[in-house]
Amino acid sequence: MDRDDLKRALATVVPEKLADDLATEFVAIRRDVATGTLGRSSPGKFVESVVQVLQALEDGGKYAAQPKVDEYLRSLESRSSTLPDGLRICASRLARAMYALRSKRSIVHKAEIDPRLYDLRLLYAGAQWVLAELLALAQGVSGDDAARLVADVQLPVGELVESIGDRKIVHGDLTVREETLVLLMAWHPTPVSTAELTGSMDRRSPSSVRAALSGLWKDKLVHREAGKVVLTDRGLRAAIEVAQAHVAEMKR
Question: Which DSSP string do the residues of 119-144 spell out, in sequence order?
Fold first, then answer.
């Protein structure tokens, strides 16, 4: 999924700032689902951006800086609007459900199964549907390009990182360097000790993990401090590229 392509297509329908917000937030949700990690993305912000988009489509590009999300979505369906029914009724109901899920499920659960990841998968599916509906309105985009973008948005995401206890296991055929990047992304922005990395990468030799870390440090993809390492901004981008490439490979 190319965020810039998605942004450009959305910007033919909505203000550029909102197109950028939607594309960025969607890719963040997709990355969390792909890596099986939680807390990087904010589906609530995605829904807020959706509300601003609906406001802009209704009111000639004008939208509230801090929209009253539930109030707007609740009233939209019952009042007269220039929006197509797919957005006025279906998207508003879906966005309201997504917003409720994020605000009402952030409680401590006593169940043995942690619901947060399947909550995120459901939110991701909702975000896919909303974006596909907006892309159907894209202007100045060829039929083939629009079809490709919709197909890309609708692609399912498989888990790349599995958490078992305190350890994280990276699936797929990755090099030691790639696996190290993906694991650091799963922990990001929390700094990680070499012991934590080698514990999760116990199928690799500790010396190969240390060598990979040394190479990443030399390439300025990680920063060392107080005996721990964390991805730099450049390193995070590199890790995301690796994760996306291997998720795509796992689907073939």
Answer: HHHHHHHHHHHHHHHHHTT-SS--HH
